[in-house]
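pls design
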């Protein structure tokens, strides 16, 4: 997480003679005692060229050699080309991309990997400035572990119209999911509120006091071990499809977070959930025409589906 380091060399003034190293460091560099103690413990502080403990005392004239790592802001957008991001459509208002697995949409605490926003900045795209700085132009999100088509806004006009369209649920969001077993009925609607999981803050669950969440599904193919579903999202909660499918006892194949069978995941060669955003349809913010963009299955999902089709 460190981008650079601030290196300083200072002599201990007479007024601090006999002070503990952490106290002297805090006074001389304007740090908290806690931060000073951390730097000493991490080996970033030398006195006269030698390592010290935080409770050691300093002598006047001793040379304090301190390296202060400059921690990177976890929300800073780091420009950089991300291999695998494909541009499906680009005009003055919007850019539609095919997002690969392993890429977050925007920076967030705890994520230091590649981002869609970083890629677009690195590739020279001008993005709308509406929204929080790390989420500028973003009107929808896909999980890091979910691939597929998504739209980012380049103009403020597009941002405001599309943000509203997603809010009003007039955007057609179509996903394909390979789920374990066979949902009964073969097509239906899951209307179950979703909230943060009470015991694992990285997960979500169907919760009585959760937010309204509606998922429509229909079975496209039924195989021995799994079914390929087409899913239309009415709402757009985090992990919505994964949570709803797990609640039906038909988790996405490979989705170990939500109870998928690890043996089946290994058998089909998956290291993530089988879930892909295949189509996105909306009214173009400039022309008002209905536009639709599609994404084909990436190699890992296509391979897993073939294994399921061939299993007897």
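designed seq:
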């Amino acid at each position: 997480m460190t981008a650079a380091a601030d290196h300083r060399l200072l002599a201990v003034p007479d007024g601090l003679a006999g002070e503990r190293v952490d106290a002297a460091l805090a006074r001389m560099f304007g740090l908290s005692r806690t931060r000073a103690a951390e730097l000493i413990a991490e080996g970033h502080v030398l006195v006269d060229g030698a390592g010290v403990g935080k409770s050691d005392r300093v002598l006047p004239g001793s040379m304090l050699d301190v390296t202060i790592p400059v921690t990177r802001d976890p929300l800073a957008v780091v420009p950089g080309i991300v291999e695998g991001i494909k541009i499906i459509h680009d005009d003055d208002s919007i850019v539609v991309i095919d997002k690969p697995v392993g890429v977050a949409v925007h920076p967030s605490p705890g994520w230091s990997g590649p981002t869609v926003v970083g890629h677009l900045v690195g590739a020279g795209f001008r993005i709308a400035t509406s929204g929080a700085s790390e989420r500028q132009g973003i009107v929808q999100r896909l999980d890091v572990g979910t691939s597929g088509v998504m739209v980012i806004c380049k103009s403020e006009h597009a941002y405001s119209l599309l943000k509203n369209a997603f809010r009003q649920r007039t955007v057609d969001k179509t996903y394909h999911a390979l789920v374990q077993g066979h949902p009964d009925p073969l097509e239906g609607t899951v209307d179950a509120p979703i909230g943060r999981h009470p015991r694992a803050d990285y997960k979500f669950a169907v919760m009585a006091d959760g937010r309204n969440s509606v998922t429509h599904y229909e079975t496209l193919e039924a195989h021995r071990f799994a079914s390929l579903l087409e899913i239309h999202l009415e709402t757009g909660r985090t992990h919505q499809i994964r949570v709803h499918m797990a609640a039906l006892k038909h988790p996405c194949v490979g989705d170990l977070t939500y109870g998928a069978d690890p043996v089946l995941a290994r058998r089909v060669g998956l290291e993530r959930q089988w879930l892909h955003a295949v189509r996105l349809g909306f009214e173009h913010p400039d022309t008002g025409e209905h536009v639709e963009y599609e994404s084909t299955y990436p190699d890992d999902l296509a391979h897993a589906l073939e294994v399921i089709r061939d299993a007897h």
